[in-house]
Amino acid sequence: MKRVQLAIIGGGLVGASLALALQAGAKARGWQIVLVEPFAPGDSYQPSYDARSTALSFGTRQIYERLGLWPAISPRAEAISQIHVSDRGRFGAARLSAEDEGVAALGYVVENAWLGHCLWQALDRDVVSWRCPAEVTRLEALADGYRLTLNDEEILDCDLAVLADGGRSGLREQLGIAVRHTPYGQTALIANISPTEQHAGQAFERFTDEGPMAMLPLADNRCALVWTRPGNDAARLQALDERAFLTELQQAFGYRLGALRQVGARHTYPLALVEALEQVRPHLVVLGNAAHSLHPVAGQGYNLALRDTLALADCLLASPAPLGDFATLQRYLSVQQQDQALTVGFSDRVTRLFGRNESLLVAGRTLGLLGLDLLSPAKRWFARQAMGLGTRTL
């Protein structure tokens, strides 16, 4: 039986980012960090037309700059220079630009495989070790930490366990951590699209009667599509041949990028706002999608998780108490509660406002988008939320 100071359950983007944020301080303190991950990271990046991607806010770039990772990420990070927000069939629209906000970009879109590759390459193997491929089948509270039982029957004890195994965390359920689950009654259809015109760094948030869609700029003049539809209709769209699918997408999105000429593999998943009612216990933290899963159209979920990650690392490294101390973990949560409430509320309210079609709401949305485009303070506030700077300064 082995004991380490920190066990991170889930070696994806959130778990690996936490290991990176902690590793210098961990090395100085003699801590050992273990990442337990069922899917082995690749040894090298392999480009793919169908690669899934993540929208990184400007605030997330600042975090990765602080961690020394941004120079590695940036070659495959497509900058968002403008965001165009509109309501299909109505004249209200709002436009946000990096130039107006005085930043190089409002955000960036990065392929998950590239971001993961950069993270995994940056980890110090003297401090961070892997159990991979491996899964934790049982997580048991001890007086001074947690005991992990892996699927190969290995037993691992730790002072602090971080649960970062995603929104469908079985271990979260095993520990009796309740969640607030609020369905949106929608399904997300995800795919990469190639338009005939250059996207020029433009991102589009378009709201339709059937649900919102986002079209985000990717490298190689591709766009990442997130299209929310009622469940049965998402399945129908997924089953269409390429030409029929592009025809329907063109009708919904319009011709701001010219004709849409290619679509890659399409994936669907049902949407809900999921919030864990406990994020900390003595010697335990729930992080990432296991703590809060948001609607993808606003692009806030990973950026909030990364801000949580940095705040947790800062609290752990600043505390003189033993690792896993409950007061330290409560301090972390109190630091992040305002950011979480603001970001979750912003994402949820925007999604619900633009997902309803009552005439008064539609009129209010049109006026709201016009006002947002004309009133500098309102536009500045909205831009700061989109940039992941709602509770922070540049």
Question: What is the first-to-last residue Cα distance?
Answer: 46 Å
Catalogue the unreliable spans: 358-376
Gyration radius, to the nearest Å?
21 Å
Shape: globular
Largest sheet: 9 strands, mixed
Mean pLDDT level? 87
CATH superfamily of the domain at 2-44 and 113-180 and 273-351: FAD/NAD(P)-binding domain
What's the CATH architecture name of the domain at 2-44 and 113-180 and 273-351?
3-Layer(bba) Sandwich
Which structural class do you get from the secondary structure elements? alpha+beta
Q: What is the helix tally?
A: 12
**At the third CATH level, what is the topology name of the domain at 2-44 and 113-180 and 273-351?**
FAD/NAD(P)-binding domain
Beta-sheet strand percentage? 25-35%
Helix fraction, binned, reads: 25-40%
CATH class of the domain at 2-44 and 113-180 and 273-351: Alpha Beta
Strand count: 20
Pfam families: FAD_binding_3
Family: Belongs to the UbiH/COQ6 family.
Protein name: 2-octaprenyl-6-methoxyphenyl hydroxylase
Pathway: Cofactor biosynthesis; ubiquinone biosynthesis
